[in-house]
Every structure is written in structure tokens, then in C-alpha cells.
Write a structure and sequence with these properties.
The chain starts with a strand and ends with a strand. It has about 525 residues and is an alpha+beta fold. Helices cover about 50% and strands about 15% of the residues. Helix 1 (about 25-40) runs parallel beside helix 3 (about 80-90) and helix 7 (about 185-205) runs antiparallel to helix 8. The strands form five sheets. It has a five-stranded mixed beta sheet with strand order 10-11-12-13-14, with helices on one face. A hairpin with an 8-residue loop joins strand 8 (about 210) and strand 9 (about 220). It is elongated.
């Protein structure tokens, strides 16, 4: 709702200035999202800055103001533009940006671009006088698919460990969402989506689904995958503030419920084949882009009431016995559920094959005495990932680090490239393979034997297409041993070292080295 407050003089004529009513739901929704922005940026470490958020809101707001003035000749408070811009800024992230960089300016152009395109869809993509898509939703999906993970990525499903500020964010999102959707008579629709999504994801999780996420050092699988998504703040924002846009959903109450239930199943099917969190998030958001143009179909097929007072989805005919109609509906529903379960399980097949790959711990042909390693100090920041980073876990992974370094040494000593594949991946594997090739070519095999005096464990944040890593800061001494082609030691020298070792769980149970920095 809007109210006429005053006029201003522009280009020799009076122009009405219209401000929002305090009862406007868009104003309340924007207030919720902006509050989440403030909590996220300053308390939860969101990887987004104030200038980036401002760029999205100002761009979408100004375009909305200009387009409305062009069509109505009035200066109307750009409620839709502000809501679209704040929504885009909440979901959009610049790849590789770290949290708590509050005033970073670079990257603002991506926020302005995506927010501007998003609000323009409201005016350029219309049918029978109504926009077809939720503006921020369709703009974000288009950006993620076209621009890609090299430059931008969506907000994470998991934000932070449960604490005061995380609980506050939940209260703001869920409390605000319930209040707003209840007043708009859309709460049933939102709850229906969540219930059906939880059911679909439950089937997917039970089938062994796994996902690689930047906030988790190990694959997110099974029950952990399910609990993460059904309690995800991003999912809550999606169901309370995206799918419930009154202009882009069916008009009837029952049609909205069926729309929400089927949308949840579409979301599950799009999430199922994704091995990376990036794809899962785009799948969730993309389901609404696919479903929004179908709202008219739901209104036609699912009406609130037929001419004789029966619910619009009741297919029983007046001349048909009730028991026959009930049996037919039950058979159809049961068959549909079975087919849907089968479809979800089949769609998730690619995610299970990849995670089952990898080398079991028992297959590593070296033995490390844990008592020879120092006690690992775990940085407080290491608790900011979705995994239990206790002393036992730290000690186990420290043993794997020592195993990997021993495997590297043995691979170089006997010129066996297969052993390198058990210890290394990524940049480290490339580096060690180059060293192995040099050793074979020259006949001089240089081997590093590490002895640790101290180990500190923290987290190495993942990028859009990788999981988080474990970062060991190690200090001690290293013996540089030179062997000849027969395996005889030629020389040995010792020196201190201070290096960072990044480990990642690429597949299976092993944590392997992906990067070493001096």
C-alpha cells in the first residue's frame, strides 16, 4: 500500500511524491532482510561488504523509481526495488572474498549488475499485466548460470555454529517470516514447502547423498546433509521471502498449497544430482524460476471450490461410488509417491559414486608412531566450520599429515608415482610429480624427512568448487637426504622449517596434502 504525502516541482509541473504505508508487507520484508544483513556482516562474518550491499539496493531502487515514474508520472517509494536489491545482496557473494572486510568497495559492480537486471525483469518480462518471476530470484539464477563460480557464488547453506548471534538470526528470519506470511495468508504455503522439501531431502539423504561444501572439510553426507539443509537459514529465506511473492504465485489457497508441495519436489530433484554445494544452491533457487510461469496452470487445475461445493482437487464424480473414487485417488497418490522416491534416488546417483571413491586409510603402506608427534594446538577459529574439531580429531589428522609426508619421501626414493597419488592432490601433487620427474632424469633423488616440534590446526577456507581445508602450521627440522638410483644414501643435511600444510578430504577417508607454503 502507498500513500500520497506531497508534491514536488519538476520540469515546470507538480509531481506527486508517494511514500510507503507502514502496513506495506514489502517494507516489513526489507526490514527483516536488512536486519539479517547487519547481523551477518558484523557478527557472523558474512563475506560481503556494506558498499556491495548498498550498490545492490541503490541500483535496484533507482531503476524501480525511474520505471515507475516513466509509467505513472509519480515519484513512488521504490519498495520493490529496495526489496529486490537487499534480497540480491543477501544471496550474492564474490568468489574468494573473506568475511569481516566491512568496507571493501571492489566487486560492487557485480551487485549493481545483478540487482539491476533483477528489477528490470519485473517490467520487461510480463504476462497479462503481471510480472512472471520473483525479480531477485530470476536475476540471481541467471547470474549464477551465466557468470559462473569463477566470479560469483550463492550464500552458503550453513552460516555459523549455533551461538547467540546465529540464534538471533534464526529468530529474525523465522519470526519475521511467520509474521509476514501469516498476515498475507501465505503461512500454510511456506510450511507446506518446508514439510515436502524435508521429506524429499530425507529420501535423498537416506540413499547416501553427499555434497562438497566450502564450509565443511569433509563431504556433507546422509543425516548431516539432511539436517544442514532443512535447518538452513538460506532455505528459510527462500521459503518465507521468495516463493511467497503474491504476484508470482497462484491466486487460490489450495492452488498455492499444491504449488508449494510440487515446487519442493522439483527443488529436491534439482538438488539430487549436484555434487557441489554451488550446484545445490542454484538448483534450489532455479526450481522457482521453472515453476513461476506455471502458476496459471495451478489456478486452472486446482480451484478452491467447484460449482457443487466440492474441493477443486476432488476428482470423484457425483455418479461414482465414494469408495471407488477414494480407492482410485489412493492408488494414484501411492503410485506417484513411489515413482517420486525412485526418481529422487536415481537422480542422486552421481553424488554417491564420487564420494565412495578414494583410498581407505588402511591401504597406506607407511606406519607413523603418534607418540613421536607433538600435541596439536587447535585455533579457536577452527570451530567455525561444520565439523567437530576436537583434540582426538586433530591428532588423527596430524598422523595423516605425517603419513603423507612419509609417502612423498618414499615415492621419491624409489621413484614410484603411484605413492604420490595416495599422499597428494592439486598443486602439491603437481609439484611432487615435477620433483619425481627431475629425480628420474638426473639420477639424484632428493628426499625430505620431517620432524615436528609444534603443530597448530586451523581452517583453510574453500573456494566455490572445493571443500574447506585443514591448515597445519608446522615447525621443526627437516633432513634433506640424497639417494642414488640404487637407493644408497649419498648425503644428508638438516635445517629448521616453518611451513603451512593444507589438507583436504578429496574422497574416501584420507586427508591428503593439496598445498604447502613456506
Amino acid at each position: 500500500m502507498i500513500t500520497d504525502n506531497r508534491t514536488v516541482r519538476l520540469a515546470g509541473r507538480d509531481v506527486a511524491v508517494i511514500f510507503p504505508s507502514r502496513s506495506d508487507a514489502r517494507l516489513h520484508t526489507s526490514a527483516v532482510i536488512v536486519t539479517v544483513h547487519i547481523i551477518g556482516i558484523f557478527a557472523l562474518g558474512f563475506a560481503v561488504s556494506v558498499p556491495q550491499v548498498a550498490a545492490a539496493i541503490l541500483t535496484a531502487g533507482l531503476i524501480d523509481l525511474g520505471m515507475t515514474f516513466r509509467s505513472s508520472g509519480k515519484l513512488v517509494w521504490p519498495a520493490s526495488g529496495i526489496l529486490t536489491g537487499s534480497g540480491v545482496a543477501l544471496i550474492l557473494r564474490i568468489t574468494g572474498m573473506e568475511g569481516r572486510d566491512y568496507w571493501k568497495v571492489s566487486g560492487w559492480q557485480w551487485f549493481a549488475l545483478v540487482a539491476g537486471i533483477s528489477i528490470l525483469t519485473k517490467y520487461l518480462i510480463r504476462y497479462r499485466g503481471r510480472h512472471i518471476f520473483n525479480p531477485s530470484n530470476v536475476g540471481l539464477v541467471a547470474a549464477f548460470l551465466i557468470i559462473g563460480a569463477r566470479f560469483i557464488e550463492p550464500l552458503d547453506f550453513w552460516w555459523a555454529p549455533i551461538g547467540f548471534w546465529m540464534l538471533t538470526a534464526y529468530v529474525v528470519i523465522i519470526g519475521g517470516g511467520i509474521t509476514i506470511t501469516r498476515r498475507l495468508d501465505l503461512l500454510t504455503m511456506a510450511v507446506t514447502f518446508w514439510v515436502f522439501l524435508a521429506g524429499g531431502l530425507g529420501v535423498l539423504a537416506a540413499s547416501g547423498h553427499c555434497m562438497i561444501a566450502t564450509w565443511a572439510p569433509s563431504p556433507v553426507c546422509g543425516p548431516r546433509f539432511w539436517t544442514t539443509l532443512v535447518t538452513s537459514p538460506e532455505v528459510m529465506i527462500f521459503l518465507f521471502f521468495m516463493i511467497t511473492d503474491p504476484k508470482t504465485i497462484p491466486s487460490g489457497r489450495r492452488a498455492r498449497v499444491v504449488f508449494a508441495a510440487s515446487l519442493a519436489m522439483a527443488s529436491t530433484l534439482l538438488i539430487a544430482p549436484q555434487t557441489l554445494e554451488y550446484g545445490a544452491k542454484v538448483g534450489l533457487l532455479g526450481s522457482l524460476v521453472i515453476w513461476s510461469p506455471l502458476r496459471g496452470l495451478f489456478d486452472r487445475l486446482v480451484t478452491d471450490e467447484t460449482a457443487d461445493g466440492r474441493p477443486g482437487w476432488d476428482s470423484a464424480r457425483p455418479d461414482q461410488p465414494t469408495s471407488v473414487g477414494t480407492f482410485a485417488r489412493g492408488l494414484a497418490i501411492g503410485s506417484g509417491i513411489v515413482l517420486l522416491i525412485v526418481a529422487i534416488v536415481l537422480a542422486g546417483t552421481p553424488t554417491r559414486n564420487g564420494v565412495e571413491a578414494g583410498t581407505p586409510i588402511a591401504a597406506v603402506p607407511v606406519v607413523i608412531d603418534p607418540s613421536q608427534l607433538p600435541e596439536v594446538r587447535v585455533e579457536p577459529s577452527a570451530t567455525g566450520v561444520n565439523v567437530d574439531m576436537d583434540a582426538e580429531f586433530a591428532a588423527d589428522v596430524a598422523v595423516m599429515l605425517a603419513e603423507n609426508l612419509a609417502l612423498e619421501s618414499e615415492a621419491l626414493r624409489i621413484a614410484d608415482g603411484v605413492l604420490l597419488g595416495l599422499a597428494d592432490a592439486g598443486e602439491r601433487l603437481d609439484e611432487m610429480q615435477a620433483r619425481l620427474a627431475t629425480a628420474v632424469a638426473t639420477g639424484e633423488r632428493r628426499v625430505d624427512v620431517y620432524r615436528f616440534d609444534s603443530l597448530t590446526l586451523s581452517v583453510h577456507e574453500g573456494e566455490a568448487q572445493t571443500s574447506a581445508g585443514l591448515l597445519f602450521e608446522g615447525r621443526g627440522s627437516v633432513d634433506v637426504v640424497i639417494y642414488d638410483t640404487s637407493g644408497q644414501e649419498v648425503s644428508r643435511s638438516a635445517s629448521p622449517f616453518d611451513k603451512s600444510f593444507v589438507l583436504r578430504q578429496v574422497g574416501g577417508e584420507r586427508w591428503i596434502i593439496v598445498e604447502v607454503d613456506p
